[in-house]
Write a structure and sequence with these properties.
three-stranded antiparallel β-sheet; alpha/beta; globular; Rossmann fold; hydrolase; eleven-stranded mixed β-sheet; protease
């Protein structure tokens, strides 16, 4: 059970954030946010003390919720980045205590999702499959990884409570693939220095666009901040800038389609009788050895072969042969989400296809809305607001951006997959774990496997590269059995990626 013992407020500088940007500079010795305003110190924190039971073990910990500045090249603050830092308080030697640095994606969303859904000491109130329930709020997370590692959750600029210090600050220095990586690497270095964690084994974990972020950060931290990591965890990864255009990209969707159709019992009985993980290798084999070669022939694929391929796609996807032929064997995601359960009057979710939605019309080429995302906002938003104010004692009228304005976003020169490969090559102690949900249609599991295969063309790093699949969607941890399995696998990954004392890092 969580207990707040003391609250300590700290103000380390006087820059204040107002609304989306910084307000007037005001002196605040106690660090409190002025009541009834939207002002927020860009360098302040609230510290509280708690306890949680994890795997039957009593864990006391300190939670620090606050902001820390982003500095420009002239040493001036340009933004305040909000973070929540959980530190086990009965550990005497932090030099061997792992530190996990956690990001979510968007790119305009804060770290709320994994903080109160996955690895943090408190978890939002949802049912065992991840659906909203009332009353809203949080409870103990007996599966938190705080027993084995300290964790900091970081909200990039314009997400959560993070903001630029002024409307005059060009946001182009934050909003782009490489810009995002650069300033966050500097921020991480500041955080690690202030918290005296340079000696600790360090891990990055990112979800969705957060996987793009942490893949790039792995190399940026090494090359620009001289900070070497022990592990990178990619939860529901993006394509990581690894090219898959054309027939390959078209074909890689099918195993996800098959998993979703299997879940909704839209397949032939002989396939439905198989367990999911026994069924999918058959679809993956067809995808690699038959579908990609067929799609590579384009309009010159002969009619007999075209119909044969369409029939197999139909068998594995639950869609009609006519619909597949009408799309020239190339089924768009949107159409699949609309078509699979169209006859039953439902759409299926994009980020988690277990979820169903109801559109205004059955007709159309795609769903009216993302059924899973609105469900998640339903449960996560009030839970985080309640948690911040009532348990962490962080009180401000500033809006907590579940989705902040970060557009336009410069996505040019996205080579983070290659950046991650280079980081792995440079650092013999660095390990990679990928976790995917079979029902995720935004960052699907087979594309994640493909990225893993392409990450290291030499094949000489593959003993440090690992992939895991779960029977959930994008937020694979929302389903209780997957939360239990995934957090246990994180514990194993952290333990196996942390070298023994005195063990050299070398080839």
């Amino acid at each position: 059970m969580s207990k707040t013992h003391t609250i300590v407020r700290m103000a380390l500088m006087t820059g204040l954030l107002t609304g989306g940007f910084a307000g007037a500079v005001m002196a605040q010795k106690d660090g409190k946010t002025p009541p009834g305003t939207l002002e927020l110190n860009i360098d302040s924190a609230v510290v509280t003390h708690h306890e949680v039971t994890i795997k039957g073990q009593h864990i006391p910990y300190t939670a620090t919720a606050g902001t820390m500045p982003v500095w420009d090249e002239d040493g001036k603050p340009v933004a305040g980045v909000f973070f929540t830092y959980y530190e086990r308080s009965d550990v005497k030697d932090q030099s061997t205590r792992p530190l996990v640095i956690s990001f979510n994606g968007g790119p305009g969303t804060p770290s709320v999702w994994m903080e109160i859904g996955y690895t943090g000491p408190r978890r939002l109130n949802i049912d065992d499959e991840g659906y909203p329930i009332q009353p809203y709020g949080v409870q103990e997370n007996p599966n938190s990884i705080l027993d084995v590692a300290d964790i900091v959750y970081v909200d990039p600029v314009n997400t959560g409570y993070s903001r630029p210090v002024s409307k005059d600050i060009p946001t182009t220095q934050f909003f782009g693939v490489n810009e995002d990586i650069k300033y966050l690497a500097g921020w991480i270095s500041t955080f690690v220095t202030r918290k005296n964690r340079w000696a600790s084994p360090k891990f990055l974990i990112g979800e969705s666009y957060g996987t793009t972020r942490v893949s790039g950060l792995a190399l940026e931290l090494q090359d620009a901040q001289w900070m070497y990591l022990n592990g990178v965890v990619l939860v529901s990864p993006t394509d990581l800038g690894i090219d898959r255009n054309g027939p390959v990209g078209m074909a890689l969707r099918l195993p996800y389609f098959a998993a979703t159709a299997w879940y909704h019992k839209a397949l032939a009985q002989d396939l439905q009788q198989k367990d999911l993980t026994a069924f999918l290798p058959e679809v993956e084999d067809f995808t690699i050895h038959e579908l990609i070669p067929a799609l590579s022939q384009g309009g010159f694929l002969d009619e007999t072969a075209r119909h044969s391929i369409a029939e197999k796609i139909s068998r594995y996807s639950g869609l009609s042969v006519d619909a597949i032929l009408a799309h020239n064997l190339d089924i768009p995601y949107d159409f699949f989400w609309k078509e699979l359960l169209r006859d039953k009057g439902y759409t299926v979710g994009r980020l988690d296809s277990r979820y169903k939605g109801i559109d205004r019309e059955k007709a159309g080429e795609g769903p009216d809305f993302n059924a899973e995302l609105t469900s998640w906002l339903h449960s996560f938003t009030p839970a985080m607001q309640i948690y911040m104010r009532n348990e962490l004692g962080y009180k401000t009228d500033l809006k907590y951006n579940m989705f902040g304005k970060v557009w336009p976003w410069d996505d040019k020169n996205d080579h983070v997959g290659e950046n991650l490969r280079q980081a792995l090559a440079e650092n013999p102690s660095l390990h990679l774990l990928i976790q995917s949900g079979y029902y995720d249609g935004a960052c699907d599991y087979f594309n994640a496997k493909y990225s893993l295969w392409q990450l290291d063309p030499s094949g000489r790093l593959k003993d440090r590269l690992h992939w895991e699949g779960y029977r959930s969607g994008h937020m694979l941890y929302l389903r209780k059995p997957d939360l239990e399995a995934a957090t246990e696998n994180l514990r194993k990954f952290i333990a196996e990626s942390t070298p023994k004392p005195g063990e050299p890092s070398k080839y």
